[in-house]
Amino acid sequence: MYIHIPFCVKKCDYCDFNSYAIGSVNESEKALCRYIEALLEEARIQSEAVTELGAQVSTVYLGGGTPTYLPEILLSSLLTEVFRLFPIADNAEITVESNPGTATYRKLRCLRDIGATRLSIGVQSLNDSLLARLGRVHSASDSIQTFHLAREAGFDNINIDLIYAIPGQTMDDWEETLDSVIGLRPEHISAYGLMLEEGTPLWRKVKSGTLAVCDEDLEIDMYYSAKEKLSLAGYQHYEISNFAMLGYECRHNIIYWRLEPYIGLGAGAHSYVKREIRSNLAHPQDYLRSIKSVGSSVCEREVFSKADEMSTVMILGLRMTCGVGESEFHRRFGISMRDAFGEAIAKGVANGLLKWDGDRLKLTRYGLMLSNEAMQEFL
Ligand code: SF4
């Protein structure tokens, strides 16, 4: 289950997620309350559907936005009610996303006490001038402080999100951040290359020539440097951009990459149940209005054909370094992967992007960097 909190202290300069600076939508504490009320209304309705399915919720991911921007009382009433409404598995993974400087010890302790098992911190870089270039509101020392507070509050499963290929970032800058983060020993590290999203302030600076994008070769070197440093430090590279100590892989994201059923609550959230993708209205005010008036905010439904599902299983599954198993695929679809995608596989293997490893089809080391090229053949 994914729950979306679309509010942030300020919009970062590279961000095109469905998130809103609290000032820009005139959000006061009252408005945050109204949003949580609507979320809980949607949760009540969705919980009936989940109960009817006889399913259990194995992971909950409170993402954003910045969930830890919510006051403690709202965070605790939201999670407590969700745990009451849904059949949550005993060993469920409960992740909360946080940004440095938005979580006090008390708030983190409260989250841990309610049942959060995992904290994901948006650190992005430990270089203050690069953080300023990204328009982040926090400093490197805020990130380190939040990490230590989380440990003190009892979080023994922490993810740190990092970004590389920031305009102006050198290899030394990136490796310094990597070394410092490795020194903290979080259980999980995500490292994403910066995407320049059209219309964002960062994109405008690059368009106008004020900033230069990171050189492509440097970006590739940064990726391989992360892969090597993190492997040496004991992190398993289990997905294109994700690294974890053994047993700390993000179970929630693995559900997406395996295209297993999930439900999403909140503005812009998606659900995938019985081959149907449902999307909620994106803007919090539209979401609120719609939940209030008709008890749902679904604005789009798309039913996947078997062929759509097969393509998606390949495209998402290949993101994981364990790849996609031929026998798993056959069990799920009643057809062999080679019969369904013979041409795409042959082309990927011939181009050095894909390889067979026993029963499993995987991206090669080269394919990890050019994954889009390998995957588009499965569309
Ligand atoms: S904290 Fe995350 S979601 Fe919020 S504006 Fe920055 S990048 Fe976007």
Layout of strands and helices, then pairs:
Blueprint: E1 2-5, E2 7-8, E3 20-21, H1 29-53, E4 57-64, H2 72-85, E5 88-98, H3 105-114, E6 118-124, H4 128-134, H5 140-152, E7 158-164, H6 171-184, E8 188-193, H7 201-207, H8 216-232, E9 236-239, E10 242-244, H9 251-257, E11 264-265, E12 270-273, E13 276-280, H10 284-294, E14 298-303, H11 306-317, E15 324-325, H12 326-333, H13 337-350, E16 354-357, E17 360-363, H14 365-369, H15 371-376
Parallel strand pairs: 1-4, 1-11, 2-3, 4-5, 5-6, 6-7, 7-8
Antiparallel strand pairs: 8-10, 9-10, 12-13, 13-14, 15-17, 16-17
The chain binds iron/sulfur cluster.
Looking at CATH, the homologous superfamily of the largest domain is Aldolase class I
Q: What average pLDDT do the residues reach? A: 96
Number of domains: 2
List segments where confidence is low: pLDDT < 50 over at least 5 consecutive residues.
none
- Label the overall shape: globular
Task: Give the names of the bound compounds.
Answer: iron/sulfur cluster
* CATH class wording of the largest domain: Alpha Beta
Indicate the proportion of strand residues: 15-25%
Please give the count of helices: 15
Strand order of the largest sheet: 9-10-8-7-6-5-4-1-11
Structure classification? alpha/beta
**Using only CA atoms, what is the Rg?**
21 Å
Q: Provide the helix percentage.
A: 40-55%
CATH topology of the largest domain, by name, is TIM Barrel
Q: Main beta sheet, described?
A: 9 strands, mixed
CATH architecture of the largest domain: Alpha-Beta Barrel
Total strands: the figure is: 17
